[in-house]
Amino acid sequence: xxxxxxxxxxxxxxxxxxxxxxxxxxxxxxxxxxxxxxxxxxxxxxxxxxxxxxxxxxxxxxxxxxxxxxxxxxxxxxxxxxxxxxxxxxxxxxxxxxxxxxx
Length: 103
Ligand code: SF4
Hints:
Elements: H1 2-27, E1 79-81, E2 89-91
Antiparallel strand pairs: 1-2
The chain binds iron/sulfur cluster.
């Protein structure tokens, strides 16, 4: 009986340690890839200067995620959350067809 309680307490402590060690993995969100199933149809590019202007004529130089209404990160950050691709992060220098100029 005591043995199973001790085993339970020890395994609980082990689980708590594992969760503490795993925390940084959960805290870091993944970054959208241009080939992601939801990114490719929107023409997402991590570098807006690489947008195919003949395929996406609405793109204009200077349009980047950092000045898009749907971007929720700081303009100075390399990546940030985007309402379209949540929970993944987008490049602040990126662009996609859903670009909406921040007012
Ligand atoms: S919606 Fe805006 S912030 Fe999100 S990927 Fe497209 S251009 Fe970037």
